[in-house]
Structures are given as structure tokens and as C-alpha cells.
Design goal:
9 helices, alpha/beta, 6-stranded mixed beta sheet, Rossmann fold, 2 domains, 4-stranded antiparallel beta sheet, about 280 residues
Length: about 280
């Protein structure tokens, strides 16, 4: 079983990892010979420029994309060889642009998260009802349960989809840009929820994030990618350096300490160092 070093340098085993992955859409190869290990019971944020393979990797880890080569291992066995419902009772995936039928209500959407737990001999139960109610409460969507998904704002829809993933009640949660469409206050609410799910409920979370400062604040581990490869992985302070910002993001930036969280904070410089700073006139 693969392992990963935690923030103290201690090796901990991983329930979910990929080895020698070749990820492609038809003839278009996104990643070649890629290894990735998820830190069990930690929060991992995958960062990198657009098109570097972050979402593709997340899809492969969640069994939404079958690798052209290599394999993803879940609890010691290849994930591709396991029944989809069995995987879905362990790993919940929230893709970047989920789709739902027109007119579907929030409550019905969230209830779909319980499908992996049901069968012809086990239909809707009080356990399912409790899981849906708790998921709606955690995301603040109780009052919208009867509303149609397509009548909501972008931020409300995103929280409804997160509710569905939470109702699935899995140990591992894979979130592709969970703060998309959310204003800053709701971004913080969602990421506070991620932290609670990890710290109080022991859930392992992997999320793709574009905001580097929020990634550093909420994740135990950062994985920086570029061109389908892992450039650096480790604790936020280890990963976020001026050198990494230059080589991975083509960005001139300083790294300072977040005055609130004490985590690394990226402060970008101008795209050129010769342009004067323009300030608005006073008065």
C-alpha cells in the first residue's frame, strides 16, 4: 500500500492512490506515468495552471475516467475491478460541471446521493432521510429543498450539489472546484464545512482549487501540477515558494504569512517590473 508523509514527516498509509497513470481523452494525452497518493484522513488541494490535468486526475481517482495505462488502487484493490455501487459507497465525486434534469428539486437531487446505499431489497429508509436532512442542514439549503434546481442562483446550485455529495456519506470526498460560482463569504462557508468534515468526522478530502491562498489555508497538503506531472507535493509552506510560482504558474510573486491563519500567502507582483504603480488622485 502506498503512503504519504504527513506534516510531521511521519509516513501514513493511503487508501486511495494512482500509480503509473496514463490519462487521455482519445488520442489526446493529458498525463503520462503519473503517480498520486491521497493522504488518508487529510485535506489535499490540487493546484496548478489551467489545463495541467487537475480535473482529469480527480476523475480518474473517482472512477469517472479509466486510465489508458496504470491503475488506481482503493483499499488495496484496483478501483476499475470493483462494482460501481461499491465504489460509490466509499468515494463521492463532485465534478466541475454536474448536470441534472430540468425541473429537478433540490431535495430530489440530494436524495440521489443515497442511491449507492439502496437496492431492490433495501429501499428508502429513515437512515436515508436523516442523511439527506443532515446534508441540507450542513450546506444551509433546507429552505430550498422544494425549489427547482434551475431556479436557484449559481452559488445556491453549487451548494445543492455539495449537499448531494455529502448525502452519499462516504469516507473519501473528491471535489472539483467546490467554490465555483460562490461569493467570498460562501466560499469560506464551504471550506469551513470541508474542514469540519475532516476534523470532526474523519473524512478524507481531495479538492481542486484555483485560489492558492484558500488552498494553503484549508489544506494539510498541496499538490502542484503542470503539464500532467506533479511538480511538488507536501505541506503548504513547503510547496508555495517564489520558485514554484515562477516555474509552475509563470508568475513573479512573494510569499508572506497570512495574518489570520498563519499559512503561506501568495502576493503576485506586476507582470512586468518596469511599469510604474498608478494610484488614483486624492480629492
Amino acid at each position: 500500500m502506498a503512503s504519504v508523509s504527513d506534516t510531521t514527516g511521519t509516513e501514513t498509509p493511503s487508501r486511495l492512490y494512482g500509480t503509473g497513470l496514463r490519462l487521455a481523452y482519445g488520442d489526446h494525452v493529458i498525463a503520462e506515468n503519473l503517480d498520486f497518493t491521497v493522504a488518508d484522513r487529510g485535506v489535499t488541494a490540487i493546484i496548478g495552471p489551467n489545463g495541467c490535468g487537475k480535473s482529469t486526475l480527480l476523475r480518474a481517482l473517482g472512477r469517472l475516467l479509466r486510465p489508458a495505462a496504470g491503475e488506481v488502487i482503493l483499499d488495496g484493490a484496483p478501483i476499475a475491478a470493483r462494482p460501481p455501487k461499491e465504489v460509490a459507497r466509499t468515494v463521492a465525486v463532485l465534478p466541475q460541471s454536474p448536470q441534472a434534469p430540468a425541473g429537478l428539486s433540490v431535495g430530489d437531487l440530494v436524495a440521489r446521493g443515497r442511491h449507492p446505499h439502496q437496492s431492490w431489497y433495501r429501499q428508502w429508509s429513515t437512515t436515508d432521510h436523516h442523511a439527506v436532512s443532515e446534508a441540507l442542514e450542513l450546506t444551509g439549503m433546507q429552505e430550498h429543498a422544494e425549489r427547482a434546481l434551475d431556479q436557484l442562483s449559481g452559488g445556491q446550485r453549487q451548494r445543492a450539489w455539495i449537499s448531494m455529495a455529502l448525502a452519499q456519506d462516504t469516507d473519501l470526498l473528491l471535489l472539483d472546484e467546490p467554490t465555483t460560482f460562490l461569493d467570498l463569504a460562501h466560499q469560506i462557508e464551504v471550506l469551513d464545512l470541508v474542514r469540519t468534515l475532516n476534523s470532526r468526522h474523519g473524512r478524507t478530502v481531495v479538492m481542486v482549487l484555483h485560489d492558492l491562498n484558500l488552498a494553503a489555508r484549508y489544506a494539510h497538503y498541496l499538490v502542484a501540477m503542470r503539464d500532467g506531472t506533479v511538480v511538488e507535493a507536501g505541506a503548504p509552506r513547503q510547496v508555495l515558494t517564489p520558485e514554484l510560482m515562477a516555474t509552475t504558474f509563470d508568475l513573479n510573486a512573494q510569499i508572506i504569512t497570512d495574518p489570520v491563519a498563519g499559512t503561506p500567502m501568495v502576493v503576485p507582483a506586476s507582470t512586468t517590473d518596469t511599469e510604474p504603480v498608478v494610484t488614483a488622485p486624492v480629492g
